[in-house]
Amino acid sequence: MLVLLAFIIVFHITSAALLFIATIDNAWWVGEGFFTDIWRVCRNNSNCTEINDSLDDYTTIQAVQASMILSTILCCIALFIFVLQLFRLKQGERFVLTSIIQLLSCLCVMIAASIYTNQYEEIHKDKKFYEDITQGKYGYSFILAWIAFAFTLISGIMYLILRKRK
């Protein structure tokens, strides 16, 4: 049981790290000579422009930003609650709250990545920010967001299964 708990803690910390990297790092949409994320657009690794309300579809990118931040916060809260519940609750009552919060984190990261997937053409057609970057591809931060979705989903389900273990 101790090995299983250690594995779950490592898995949860990995999920949180993936969420932090996906939220912060600058590689959601990349191409030759540019890279962009949910916060800014950079050309030639030095000319960076912050994404702000002058973008035509700013509310869409704000929804992605808010969902990614919320998923990261919820994942960290779930880890904190897991550690508290591990020592506070009696057996059979553990980890339900942790599972619910982790599954909410999973839902938030899925919403963010889905919005970005569905709306990336709309987001990148604004000529003020994206003059030459329509010919790009999804970057590793975008892929990490989807991997974090899978990890948070698996860990949320593991907490529910672990609740019944003795």
Describe what you observe in this structure.
The chain has 166 residues and is an alpha+beta fold. The protein has a single domain, classed as Up-down Bundle (Butyryl-CoA Dehydrogenase, subunit A, domain 3). The chain contains 4 helices and 5 strands. The chain has a 5-stranded antiparallel beta sheet. The model has no long low-confidence stretch (mean pLDDT 82).
Which outline best applies?
elongated
User: Which percent range fits the helix content?
Assistant: 55-70%
The largest β sheet comes out as: 5 strands, antiparallel
What is the CATH top level name?
Mainly Alpha
Number of DSSP strands?
Answer: 5
Strand order of the largest sheet: 4-3-2-1-5
Oligomer: single chain
Look up the CATH topology: Butyryl-CoA Dehydrogenase, subunit A, domain 3
**Separation of the first and last Cα atoms:** 8 Å
Organism: Sarcophilus harrisii
Family: Belongs to the PMP-22/EMP/MP20 family.
InterPro entries: EMP-2, PMP-22/EMP/MP20-like, PMP22/EMP/MP20/Claudin, PMP22_EMP_MP20
Transmembrane segments: 63-83, 95-118, 138-162
